[in-house]
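Q: What would this chain look like folded?
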Amino acid sequence: MKTKLFILLFIVSSMSHAQERYRIQYNYKTDLFTYFKLDKSNKIIDTLENPKFKRNSLIEIKLINVNPFAVKIKTDVKEEEIHATGSQGFNFSNLLGGISSAAGGDLKLNVANLPSNNKLFQQASASRGENISNAFTQLNTVAINVDALKKSMIADLSNPNLDKATILQNLRKAASIQEDARIADPNQNFHIYISSLKKIVNEDAEALAYKISDIKNEMEQLMTENKSVTRGELLGQNVSYTSMEKLIANLKESSNWTAENLTKIEELYSALEASSFEQTYDYEITADKVNLELQFVQSEFTTKNDTDGSDNGAAALATLKTRHIKLLAKGGFKINTSVALTLNNFKSKSYDYFIDENGVIGSEANNYFTPNLSTMINFYPVIGENINFGGSFGVSIPISDAVNGINYLFGPSLILGSKSRIALSGGLAYGPVKKLTNGLNVGDPTVFNDVNSFTKNVYEFGFYFGISFSIFNLN
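A: My prediction, written as structure tokens:
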């Protein structure tokens, strides 16, 4: 039992090692296919042009420069028996087109909100107003750049025409716009860059909040000490005080918003670092003809982050492009049947015998072609889709009044076509011919009145030519 198992494993191992390997590489960015032949270690040993693959070969379909954030791949394999836009980089100015509106809206750090024209505020903060204004401007710029960096990164990740290296390059280039001596270099370590930026935003926001609180406390003290104020001044003091409280709340909200953006950027960067822009599929070609369809559709990430106002449901179904890989197998063995019309000839081996009016045996040579209706079995190795060479074996019955028996046919054949095949064949015919019995020869007198009384059917070799039409496959 162990010996049989060892032999079986040896045979399977030998077949596995004999399996040929190929790679079909598709570059999404250049839209080009390249064909390679591989060795047993999957190393490229040759580049091929319009190849035909040996049957049962292992085909590696390798897709490169496919952005997994922007593109989702759907594959469909159809097996058939043949005999049965440019890259776009990061544009920082486009993303900063709405800075002025953002500064006065979402960021809530517009310096104009400060009540600097109020007499009481001028008394309390005249010495620090300029510093606070500069600090607000700096924090505002950081928040704007971080928001732009996030939008830029999402835009690049959603662009199917950008490869991984380009996205990383654009990201680091955009991050380098942030100017602050305390910020780490994003080109050296992007994670440290994000951490340093988070720290700066947090520290600057706390420092600003402390300064504003200090001014607010001074305002409270001045409001308490200054009793001789007009009604209008009192109203202005209350408005200024309320504005200061709102400014502190907005400052906290803005710093949290910037921190969230930085966290999102770091998450996307980590996902980008870990992502692969290559996908590989293995396929063993067993069919005669294979059509592998690659459908590149818009990804869920792109649909989720679509901000152009389009319908996400429709966008999820958007097909970016479809490509087809056609594989044609060579080798293997085919057997199919066909109905044929053949012409059989036995030359000098076949005669028609008769008895003349003098009772003498006579003969006529059947050296002509006799039409036969035949059934053929065609067998051949697959060389091409429309032309193949092989052999044919069949049986035939003469189309005549006198049928002596079945003829057996065997010979080479030329098979033309794929779905509807025509086989041209010729070769040996082995069939019945009449022979004289009882030692009689042509020219001998006989007392018999019936030719069948002194003849019998004997099988002899001849030859045939024929054309057959396929009707169905046996395998």
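Residues 231-274 form the longest helix (44 residues).
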